[in-house]
Amino acid sequence: MALRNAAATCSRVSISLAATGAQARELVYGSWVSPKHGINSDALPVLFNGVKKDTNGSITWKLVAGGALVKGRTTLAGIRDGLIDAGLGISVFSAKKTPTTAMIHSTLIGGEDNVAVTAAQNEVLMLHCPQCLAEWNKNNTIYLAGYAPTPFRMICRKKVETLADFKGMKTRASGGGVNLVKLGGGVPVNMTPAEATTALQRGTLDCVLGAFAWLKSYSYQDVAKYVVKTPLGIIGPAVSVAMNRKTWRSMTKTEREAHWKYLPLVNAHSALSAYLFRDNAILADAKKVGVQITSGKNFQSIMDKRVAQQRGSNMKRFAKFGVKNPGKVLDAYDTAIAKWRKISKEVGTDIDKYAAAIKREIYDKVDPHSL
User: Fold this and answer.
1) Are 212 and 153 in contact (CB under 8 A)?
2) Cβ contacts of residue 14 below 8 Å, gap of 6+?
3) Cα(344)–Cα(353) distance, rounded to whole angstroms?
4) How far apart are CA 70 and CA 87, in angstroms?
5) Using CB atoms within 10 A of its CB, is residue 348 exposed (0-12), middle (13-18) or buried (19+)?
């Protein structure tokens, strides 16, 4: 009798453990950038650790970085088809699938306020651009968070002191940066930032139009020793949390709310911790290994030209991709930029204040259970 009772008890424990295991899920985030990239090391852990805590472990996230599962151009397909549950999406890599977001991404914003631009991009996509969300949804994907890096600069293998030195340079660029490179007399090359590291090393690429943070996150500082200091536009959104729609809808209400709680912080850490806060330290380290900052004489002129012409060219280009009322979307973006430039001055670089503003102005106005 004692043995039978013991066996029954063991059986019940096994069933209980099995049920617990069945309820707990490990979801996969596929990232084509390296584990040391600021988004992977500074921003996403806020979401992953917070969700694990708030759901008592019913959902955990596994980060698979370095392109082991998906590359930059295959991320959207990987999310759509369920190869990964979420990932880092760049809309211009799938411009025909998400053309309205790609149009926003192709709009260069002057200045250096990536705090304002990050929030403005999220506000437009989540509140003022139904066709943006519809395009993502058509690909079985939900847009949940995005960010803008600090302004792009020219990062080059050869010394580029003035705009005249840049003529003929093969330069990795995307979105609005493609036209910027052409205006400067360079030759734009379509590849991901990760692919550009090897291309710079082999000499098949001369420059990259990218952020200071990329010197470290993509190891550019080892192969490109010259950086033009002129800011050449802020782009985005880079979609830090694009999630498989079936994955999102399969969650319980509590699990979705746990994610929703931390998304404003993901945006804040993406703009600040992953980029703005890193810039000075990264530049200091880069200088120690021989990276030089050049003046960039006349580079501002091509930025001015691009900003003056980009609205018309973007509207024309993306209308061909099926974007309806492109002017209305860009008007909403202009309005949001102006609004968030004011809020940016108020929150400064305080992560909690910034996240609170993003929550108040954006996420509190969206029902996460209706996505």
Assistant:
1) yes
2) none
3) 10
4) 9
5) exposed
Coil vs helix vs strand at 244? strand
Give the 3-state secondary structure of residue 292.
strand
Is 21 within 8 Å of 49 (Cβ atoms)?
A: no
Pair of tokens at residue 199: 């291309």
**DSSP three-state, residue 241:** strand
- The CA distance from 250 to 263, in Å, is 18
Task: Give per-residue pLDDT as tens, 177-218.
Answer: 999 999 999 999 999 999 999 999 999 999 999 999 999 989
Domains annotated for the chain, with CATH where assigned, are: 26-147+237-279+310-370 (3.40.190.170)
Please say whether the beta carbons of 122 and 237 come within 8 A. yes
Strand partners, 87: 30, 242
CA distance 329 to 327: 5
pLDDT tens, 30-73?
Answer: 999 999 999 999 999 999 999 999 999 999 999 999 999 999 99
CB atoms within 10 A of CB 273: 19
Measured CA distances, 165 to 34, 276, 297, 304 (Å) = 32, 28, 10, 19
